[in-house]
TrEMBL record:
It comes from Piprites chloris. Residues 557-583 are annotated as: Disordered. Pfam families: COBRA1. One of its GO terms (biological process) is negative regulation of transcription elongation by RNA polymerase II. GO terms for cellular component: NELF complex. This is NELFB factor. PANTHER family: NEGATIVE ELONGATION FACTOR B (PTHR13503:SF3), NEGATIVE ELONGATION FACTOR COMPLEX MEMBER B (PTHR13503).
Length: 583
């Protein structure tokens, strides 16, 4: 057919006879058998010793094709080895000259499946494949697909759109993987979104594929960063910031200095990466990070845009926020004010740089956000006063009570706290982490006291997936409290259900939590929750699926009709033994 003809057309250019020539010879000859024999002699393998061996193979019924094929495969292997060897030997200009000549000769046969690997191998070893050949490869889908990544890089670096098409599905996959972890049905305070170490995360499929695609090519690296910035601006999705840091550190792991030395964020990211690994910013590293921030020179402020994106990575924010809470507790013990702690001030500076990433990249105004004095002079001392309240309450509980009776836990929240959570982004972030902290300590009193402040927070941060993922995990530690009507009313009616109808993600997180803890919830409460959480017409598939799973679990828990029937009156009623709650 036509494709066959096209495939072998290249042979003629090289002066090698092909099927068309044989057809012609046979059509114009008087003795076809003699002509065939002559064609075989002229175009066969030119080795004198074969003259006698071939008839011998014929006797054994080995088709000539099979013989030629095996010779051919053998030769091709040798040729591929030779090409790889040429690529490493002699003077640079000479070896590339040899390969270019080879490419010139062989390229016309690139459509022949048997020859294609050789052509591809030659191109793979050429640091600069001639432009004309790259265009031919690009124009042919199958050839492009068959190309080594080394050749594709040369094509991509001048074709951003084509590179974008290759990268785009990987970025989608990455975001999806992150969301699947946040909404996973396994809820635990031991294993959460932030558990995997940075090194483990960088082994992920998408990061590895992107690293492979980029190789040592700075131009491609820059393109990927440009994609990530654009997507972050378009979607505000912070997972793109994580990928920005992971990609750089993955190249760092491979010691690709060609890229690491030109990325101005490299050393900062490397230092921060060590902090994320420890989930804490120690004093030595704090000094180092501060040195990088203070070292941004006049005229280079644009690097702040990149640093802010690195600091906006949720793994970085998590580390900074956890470190802030730890510092505040230490300050209570040392009787020191927040404004007197340089380490704490640095953490806040980095938090606000990270939280300001979107605005900075959007406005293209590269300067550090101004820290609000109130945050340091009013908000943090407030948090410290909560820590003190807890200490006081615990000590009071242990004192022998004279007539004064038990001291109640302070139940009101200072209005200033609620206001800060609504109006100040950094205060809100730290406040939420403080609430996660007391939940993890199983401090029910403090949790119920501060919970009402979460209903309205700065840009609804208390209803963001990362916070709800962590909160639901920590709430499993307060499992036994779910049997209490008052606790459930505060948590569900007072917090979760206020947002369920307007925020699909909150609906999902509540259902996740109940799937995990339904056996702990008071039955009457469970029934009203089941009604309140019923999906509406607008609900997405995920909500419906979770709701069905929950309904099935609850069906299994209902006693069967046989157990419910009245005990006949003549028998003495036996004391009912509660069945162990099934999960």
């Amino acid at each position: 057919g036509h494709a066959q003809a096209e495939m072998y057309a290249g042979l003629q250019e090289l002066g090698v006879a092909n099927g068309e020539d044989l057809k012609e010879t046979l059509t114009n000859c008087t003795e076809p058998l003699k002509a065939i024999e002559q064609f075989q002699t002229e175009n066969g393998v030119l080795l004198p010793s074969l003259q006698y061996a071939l008839p011998f193979l014929d006797l054994h019924g080995t088709p000539r094709l099979e013989f030629h094929q095996s010779v051919f495969d053998e030769l091709r292997e040798k040729l591929l080895e030779r090409v790889s060897a040429i690529a490493l030997e002699g003077k640079v200009e000479e070896r590339y000259k040899k390969l270019e000549d080879l490419l010139e000769k062989s390229f016309s046969l690139v459509k022949m499946p048997s020859i294609q690997p050789v052509v591809m191998c030659v191109m793979k070893h050429l640091p600069k494949v001639p432009e004309k050949k790259l265009k031919l490869v690009m124009a042919d889908k199958d050839l492009y697909k068959a190309c080594a990544v080394e050749v594709k890089r040369q094509i991509w670096q001048d074709n951003q759109a084509l590179f974008g098409d290759e990268v785009s599905p990987l970025l989608k996959q990455y975001i999806l993987e992150k969301e699947n972890i946040l909404f996973s049905n396994d809820i635990s305070f031991l294993q959460n979104f932030f558990s995997p170490s940075p090194k483990t995360r960088r082994q992920g499929e998408v990061v590895q594929k992107l690293t492979q695609m980029i190789g040592k090519n700075v131009k491609l690296y820059d393109m990927v960063l440009q994609f990530l910035r654009t997507l972050f601006l378009r979607t505000r999705n912070v997972h793109y910031c994580t990928l920005r840091a992971e990609l750089l550190m993955s190249l760092h792991d491979l010691e690709i200095s060609e890229i690491c030395t030109v990325d101005p964020c490299h050393k900062f990211t490397w230092c921060l990466d060590a902090c994320i690994r420890e989930k804490f910013v120690d004093n030595k590293r704090a000094r180092e990070l501060q040195g990088f921030l203070d070292g941004v020179k006049k005229g280079q402020e644009q690097v702040l845009g990149d640093l802010s994106m690195i600091l906006c990575d949720p793994f970085a924010i998590n580390t900074l926020a956890l470190s802030t809470i730890r510092h505040l507790q230490d300050l209570v013990g040392q009787d020191t004010l927040p404004r007197e702690s340089p380490d704490l001030l640095l953490l806040l500076r980095m938090l606000s740089l990270g939280q300001g990433a979107w605005d900075m990249i959007d406005s293209q105004v590269f300067k550090e956000p101004k820290m609000e004095a109130e945050l340091i002079t009013r908000f943090l001392p407030l948090l410290m006063s909560f820590v003190v309240d807890d200490h006081t309450f615990t000590v009071d509980q242990k004192l022998p009570s004279e007539e004064k009776g038990p001291i109640p836990y302070p139940s009101t929240i200072p209005e200033a706290f609620t206001k800060f959570l609504q109006e100040n982004r950094i205060a809100c972030e730290i406040g939420l982490y403080y609430i996660l902290h007391i939940t993890k300590q199983r401090n029910k009193n403090a949790f119920l006291r501060l919970l009402p402040a979460l209903v309205e927070t700065f840009s609804d941060l208390a209803f963001s997936d990362i916070f709800l993922h962590l909160l639901t995990g920590n709430l499993t530690l307060l499992g036994d409290e779910f049997a209490l009507e008052e606790f459930c009313t505060s948590l569900f009616d007072g917090f979760f259900l206020t947002a369920c109808s307007r925020k699909e993600n909150v609906h999902r997180h509540v259902l996740r939590l109940l799937l995990h803890l339904h056996h702990k919830v008071a039955p009457a409460k469970l029934e009203s929750l089941q009604k309140a959480l019923e999906p509406t017409k607008q609900s997405g598939e995920a909500v419906k699926e979770l709701y069905n799973q929950l309904t099935e679990k609850l069906e299994l828990r209902k006693p069967s009709p046989a157990e419910v029937t009245e005990t006949p009156s003549m028998e003495l009623p036996l004391p009912t033994v509660p069945t162990p709650a099934s999960r």
